[in-house]
Amino acid sequence: MWRGVVKSWGKRLPSGWSEAVWSVAGNAQATWRKSCLIGILLLLTLVLFKPHWYLPNRVYDWYFVVDITQSMNVPDYQVAGKSMSRLQMAKQSIRKTLSALPCGSQVALGMFTERNVVNVVEPVEVCSHFAALDQTVASMDWRMAWAADSFISHGVYHALEQAPQLGKQMRVMFFTDGQQAPPANPKYMPSYAGKPGDVQGYLVGMGQRTPSKIPKLDEKNAVAGYWEQEEVQRFGNFGMAETLSVLAMEQGQHDRNAGHGPGNNLLENAHLSALDAQNLQRLATITGLHYVRLDATADSSHWATGLGMTAWRWADTDLRPWLGWAACAAWLGYLWLTFAAGPGLVAWARSVKRRIGGITRPGK
Question: Taking each helix axis from N to C terminus, what angle separates 17-48 and 341-355, rounded to the nearest 10 degrees?
Answer without folding.
Answer: 160
